[in-house]
Amino acid sequence: MDEKAAVLIFDWWVQNEDRSLSVHGGNPNLLTTSYKKHSSKLWVFDFNLAFDLNFSEDKFRANHLFYDLLSEWPLGFRESLSEKMKIAFERLDELFAALPEEWLYFEGDENLTVHLDKNLVSSILSKPFSEPDYFWKSLL
User: Fold this and answer.
1) Number of H helices, E strands in the chain
2) In whole angstroms, what is the distance from residue 87 CA to residue 75 CA?
3) pTM of the entire predicted model
4) For residues 104 and 116, is the Cβ–Cβ distance under 8 A?
């Protein structure tokens, strides 16, 4: 449950609405491996739509694979995850500098416009700290 809740919050944080599943199909972008008895590991991939300027909060809430699990959050989960998010956000300059340059451009072509703008990313990732009530309550 903690892994699924973390994926939901991470996708909300980076504005990635590309992890959907419904009775009509979807695009969960997940793999699960089982090991040992009653144990599994969740592998999360495909973040190419993160920080999308066309992110829709309504579509996210309606379609995210784990949205229905909000009512099952473990006690203290928000606080625990908030601290991890803060640590990651404080390292944004360092992490951004480590990105391969081709990741910054649309389809890796540096002749096209910048696709991953650091200021935009920073403004999106700052929301849990600059607008915590909005960030957490608008998810509900």
Assistant:
1) 7, 4
2) 21
3) 0.85
4) yes
